[in-house]
Structure to design on (135 residues):
């Protein structure tokens, strides 16, 4: 894995962690509908972005990458869904499942342009998630 792709991967998790800590402080303001959108968006965008990055980097290990990405997206969906209640947790898990399976498919068939597009999506979506919570 090249240094640039490793930096991009670490930046995904850094943005996710910063967004989670911001939302954790405001979790009592988050309604049920917003919590569902937060859980589904965070797990979906992380599953697709990480899966595309790893699928493009390691196309020979497609099955292993798919399993790792799916587990990771499910965990992220569960963590963000647990901010509100169990129904949002379930929404985050199901969205993470779908995105974790789809991400490596996109990554194996795409090039560096798609990785840059996914990187842009991660930054924009997490910024929108944090901006959508108004106290």
């Amino acid at each position: 894995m090249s240094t640039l792709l490793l930096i991009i991967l670490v930046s995904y998790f850094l943005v996710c962690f910063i967004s989670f800590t911001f939302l954790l402080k405001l979790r009592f303001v988050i309604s049920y509908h917003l919590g569902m959108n937060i859980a589904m968006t965070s797990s979906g965008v992380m599953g697709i972005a990480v899966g595309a990055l790893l699928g493009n980097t390691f196309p020979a290990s497609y099955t292993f990458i798919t399993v790792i990405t799916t587990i990771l997206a499910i965990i992220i969906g569960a963590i963000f869904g647990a901010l509100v209640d169990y129904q949002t947790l379930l929404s985050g898990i199901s969205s993470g499942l779908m995105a974790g399976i789809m991400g490596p498919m996109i990554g194996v068939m795409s090039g560096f342009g798609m990785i840059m597009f996914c990187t842009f999506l991660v930054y924009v979506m997490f910024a929108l998630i944090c901006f959508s919570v108004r106290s």
